[in-house]
C-alpha cells in the first residue's frame, strides 16, 4: 500500500457526532477510539475521541479527534493534513522536508499505539501529521 494523504479535523468535544455525521453523508466504515481506550479510563475526557477514521467506498479517508484533555481548543485552526503509510523512508523524508524551517509540536517517534508519529507546522503555517505504520512480528 502506498502512502495516504488526507485531512485530519480537530473538534472541541464533538468529534463523535461530527464523524458519525460524515459517515451518514459519505457512507463507509467508521472507527472511533477514545482516550479511555488508550489507557485513560475514568479520567476526565476519557469518553472523547482520541482518533477517528472514516474510509469510504469512493476512496475518501477523513480523520478526526477531540482536543486532548488539558489542551486548549484553537478555534479557526481545526485541521491538519495527515500522511500515513508503511514506506518508512519516504515518510521520514516528507517529515524532514515539511518540518525544515517550521516548528515541531510532537517529534517523529514511536507512540503508545505502536506507530511512529509526529506533528509539525511547516514554514507556511500548515499543520501536518506523519504516521508510519509499524507491524509487529
From TrEMBL:
Pfam families recorded: Glyoxalase
InterPro entries noted in UniProt: Glyas_Bleomycin-R_OHBP_Dase (IPR029068), Glyas_Fos-R_dOase_dom (IPR004360), PhnB-like (IPR028973)
Residues annotated as domain Glyoxalase/fosfomycin resistance/dioxygenase: 6-130
Gene3D superfamilies per UniProt: 2,3-Dihydroxybiphenyl 1,2-Dioxygenase, domain 1
Protein name: VOC family protein
CDD domains per record: PhnB_like
Amino acid at each position: 500500500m502506498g502512502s495516504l494523504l488526507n485531512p485530519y479535523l480537530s473538534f472541541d468535544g464533538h468529534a463523535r457526532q461530527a464523524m458519525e455525521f460524515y459517515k451518514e453523508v459519505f457512507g463507509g466504515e467508521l472507527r472511533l477510539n477514545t482516550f479511555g481506550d488508550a489507557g485513560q479510563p475514568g479520567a476526565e475526557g476519557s469518553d472523547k475521541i482520541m482518533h477517528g477514521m472514516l474510509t469510504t467506498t469512493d476512496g475518501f479517508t477523513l480523520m478526526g479527534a477531540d482536543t486532548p484533555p488539558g489542551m486548549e481548543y484553537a478555534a479557526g485552526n481545526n485541521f491538519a493534513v495527515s500522511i500515513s503509510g508503511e514506506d518508512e523512508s519516504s515518510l521520514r523524508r516528507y517529515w524532514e522536508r515539511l518540518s525544515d524551517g517550521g516548528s515541531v509540536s510532537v517529534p517523529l517517534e514511536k507512540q503508545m499505539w505502536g506507530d511512529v508519529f509526529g506533528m509539525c507546522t511547516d514554514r507556511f503555517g500548515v499543520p501536518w501529521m506523519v504516521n508510519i505504520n509499524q507491524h509487529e512480528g
